[in-house]
Amino acid sequence: MQQDNWSNVIKSKSTFSLSSIKEVWHYRDLLWMFVKRDIVTNYKQTVLGPLWFFIQPILTMLMYVVIFNRVANIQTPVSPVLFYLSGIAAWNYFSECLNKTSSTFKDNAYIFGKVYFPRLILPLSIIVSNLLKFAIQFSLFIVALAYFVFIEKAPLQPSIYILLVPVLIFIMAGLGLGLGMIITSLTTKYRDLTFLVQFGVQLLMYATPVIYPLSKVSGSRLEPFILANPMTTVMETFRVAFLGVDKGVFNWMHILYSILITLLLLLVGFYIFNKTEKTFTDTV
Amino acid sequence: MSDTIIKVENVSKQYRLGEIGTGSLSHDLNRWWSRLRGKEDPYLKIGETNDRTQKGSSDYVWALRDINFEINRGEVWGVIGKNGAGKSTLLKLLSKVTSPTIGEIKYKGKMASLLEVGTGFHGELTGRENVYLNGAILGMKKKEISSKIDEIIDFAGVEKYIDTPVKRYSSGMYVRLAFAVAAHLDTDILILDEVLAVGDASFQRKCLGKMNDAASNQGKTVLFVSHNLSQVQGLCKKGMLLENGHLTFAGDISTAISKYTLSGNTNNLVNVSAIPRVGPRADYFQITKLQLRNLNNNEEYFEVDTIELTITFESKRQIEDCVIAFSISDSLGNILIDCRSTENYPKIEVLPNKQYTIRCELPLPIKSGSYQINLGAASFYGILEYVPSVTNIELLSKDTEDNNALYKPSVGMTIMHPKWQLINN
Q1: Which range has the worst mean pLDDT, A101-105, A218-222, B108-112, B208-212?
Q2: Which residue, A2, A273, A276, B139, is most buried by CB atoms nearer than 10 A?
Q3: Closest residue on chain A to B15 (Cα)
Q4: Which of A2, A6, A16 would best serve as a mutation to test chain B binding (most B beta carbons within 10 A)?
Q5: Residues of chain B contacting A29 with CB distance shorter than 8 Å
Q6: Dihedral of CA B119/B16/B52/B13: which sign?
Q7: From the DSSP assignment, how many helices (H) and strands (E) are in chain A?
Q8: Which of A31, A20, A17 is nearest to B139 (CA)?
Q9: For A161-204, how does the pLDDT look when each residue is reduced to its tens digit (9 = 90+)?
Q10: Half-sphere exposure (CA, 13 Å, Cβ side) for B181?
């Protein structure tokens, strides 16, 4: 009598299949718990509480205005306040996602060593909880935008490309998640890469038009490299969408390129992550 | 007809010893190269049996080797074995924390494992929030937890503190709450790793009761790993014995336990000289050997058996008023019995460079459990030597036909056989 209706099989080799996605769906409540945990515990026992979500980007923006605009004299197509706020919100979202997911295995080794749940839940929860932070920082930008449009009467004309915002968010989240999953998988055994990641993200910021407009490098030898960075398009499109078509560079091919890179990184990321999660507790 | 719920086939698990560095990188490259050529992993062929006491020559070790077994629905299995025999590795494989190097594990239905209670508890969150978080980590749905939350809080007995961050909890409350979540898991298979060794005695009893209930009334399948043989004996019907990564026995629990105790866990002859001790006079006095024997001619030790201790000692100097002592303590370190040779020999005169042997016969009126034997010696001027935890002794309870707990002594630390007389008038 041989029954073959085993509901689960644990094997040595990983199988990447639809069932792992179904499993993540089954654990969706856990995803929300982690998101809630991240947000609630972040500012417990602080007096200002969630206000820190605002203070941080405002201070960063002020610093950028002083250093890059006043001291380094980098010209921005719109008021530097608006220019940096949009850049900071978007860049922070991407870099936080990347930084946090790239240490998923290391940070959660203890939990992972004690109980099983689809490991993918944790990086996903990071993406989601940071999305909230992004929304807060972005709303700050919107408030500033409204001030400049209605009070200062600045010539800003949000464009139809605003409809692309969900796509931009997908690209940022996907890039952060995909890269993060690849890095965390590669660093479980050999930690060398972690050192590279830390300043790599910082360096990457300068290869992205966060503090300068893309137009500043147009025609220079640097331009192809900066355009090769999929985050470049995100930054520029954000500005085009909210500040006006003349305030940035928009190109459908660039968008398509970024989407393709994102999908590729996500696919590779899922594959490597899935392969690593099986035995990483032995090597972490 | 038996209904197999877990099937483990040819499972082996290999671990790499030592540090991860450039050495392991060269192995990894080697492995990758042979996989590229379509060959077998070269490091799977090597590897030694897992015996932690011997230094091996290979960097690889088989924590588990060729494990095969089947478990039927509703059975409660105890997994026993020495430290490092592979018990925890087996549980880790079963609970998917890590995956086997070779082989397959199949199971039906929902499985939950508790390798620890309170995994994922966050100190900043309140008790209630943690119940939700921990429950979700263990695989429960939010709705499920909501429907059980009152029951869980009640079981843990921390109602007053449920909306306080758990970092303010006493360690006992923390553990009670954590276990309460686990106890209300609704799964077909439950895997437990010594998690019952928490909380105070009354809470432990509550947990055991809950587990018994899960197994016998709700038809859950339970796998339980513990060093506490009497707990295993009380809870499980079936047992498997792991030795150095091999499954040496799987069958009924009493056979498993007796094989285990015979396999050298309770060393009958202990080389005391090798055990660290407190020895203010270690330069000239030493207890060298302890021999244990069961005078009831059982191979295992049961409650109320009479044991015989033979203690060998020697001194380089003359001692005129030596006393030899031993004590028996429980796993928490409470001393239950303290015996001294002054009972029969007020003073033992010890001549230099001669070996002495003293024998003591003692009935053990203590409840089943795991106990430690400690040895000591003193003279008029002070302690000569104190050797704690010389050996372990596992006392088992005698199986009685009547399994109803109400019909046999179940609380207290000692076992007495008083004389009763029913007077009809």
Answers
A1: B208-212
A2: A273
A3: A282
A4: A6
A5: 136, 140-142
A6: positive
A7: 13, 1
A8: A31
A9: 889 999 999 999 999 999 999 998 888 877 777 788 878 888 89
A10: 33
Q: Does residue A125 contact residue A97 with C-beta atoms inside 8 Å?
A: no
- The answer to whether the CB of B302 falls within 8 A of the CB of B396 is yes
Give CATH 3.40.50.300 domain extents, chain B. Answer: 4-110+187-263
SS3 annotation, B165-177 = EHHHCCHHHHHHH
Asked whether A177 and A119 are in contact (CB, 8 A), the reply is no
Query: Domain ranges in chain A?
Result: 21-29+49-283
**A260: Cβ contacts below 8 Å, ≥ 6 apart:** none
- Residue A49, pLDDT score: 75
What is the H or E stretch that residue A223 is in?
A: helix A223-228
User: Contact, A230 vs A98, CB < 8 A?
Assistant: no
Q: Which residue has the tokens 């209605």?
A: A150
CA distance B80 to chain A (A): 20
CB A52 within 8 A of CB A46: yes
For chain B, residues classed under CATH 2.70.50.60 are 269-396
pLDDT-based confidence at residue B114 (cuts at 50, 70, 90): confident
| CB B124 within 8 Å of CB A40 | yes
Higher pLDDT, B40 or B421: B421
Residues of B in contact with A10 (CB under 8 A): 93-94, 96, 99-100, 104-107
The residue of chain A with its CA nearest to that of B98 is A279
pLDDT value at A1 more than 70: no
Q: Which two tokens stand for residue A251?
A: 């190109």
pLDDT cut 70: percent of chain B above it: 87
Task: Count how many pairs of residues, chain A against chain B, have C-beta atoms within 8 Å.
Answer: 107
Fold for domain B269-396?
Coagulation Factor XIII; Chain A, domain 1 (2.70.50)
CB contact under 8 A, A41 and B115: no
How much is the average pLDDT of A229-239?
91
pLDDT value of residue B399: 62
Q: Please tell me the distance in Å from B70's CA to the nearest CA on chain A.
A: 13
Rounded Cα distance between A202 and A200, Å, is 5
Q: What is the structure's pLDDT at B1?
A: 44
Find the mean pLDDT for residues A128-143: 90
Q: Is the pLDDT of residue A59 over 60?
A: yes
Q: Are strands B76-81 and B221-225 parallel, antiparallel or unpaired?
A: parallel
Domain B4-110+187-263 has CATH 3.40.50.300: yes
Closest approach of chain A CAs to the CA of B383, in angstroms? 44
User: What's chain A's average pLDDT?
Assistant: 85
For chain A, give the percent of residues with pLDDT over 90. Answer: 24
pLDDT at B55: 55
Half-sphere exposure of A66 (CA within 13 A, CB side): 5
Class of residue B388 by CB neighbours under 10 A (exposed 0-12, middle 13-18, buried 19+): middle
Closest Cα of chain A to B30: distance in Å? 16
Q: Which two three-digit tokens encode residue B71?
A: 């478990």
pLDDT tens readout for residues B300-333: 788 888 888 999 999 998 999 999 999 998 877 7
Flag whether pLDDT at B378 surpasses 60: yes
Q: How far apart are CA B187 and CA B184, in angstroms?
A: 9
pLDDT at B199 exceeding the cut of 70 = no
Q: Do A111 and B109 touch (CB under 8 A)?
A: no
Measure Cα distances from B407 to A154, B398, B400, B403 in Å: 90, 14, 10, 8
State the DSSP H helix or E strand holding residue B339, giving kind and residue range, or none if neither: strand B335-340
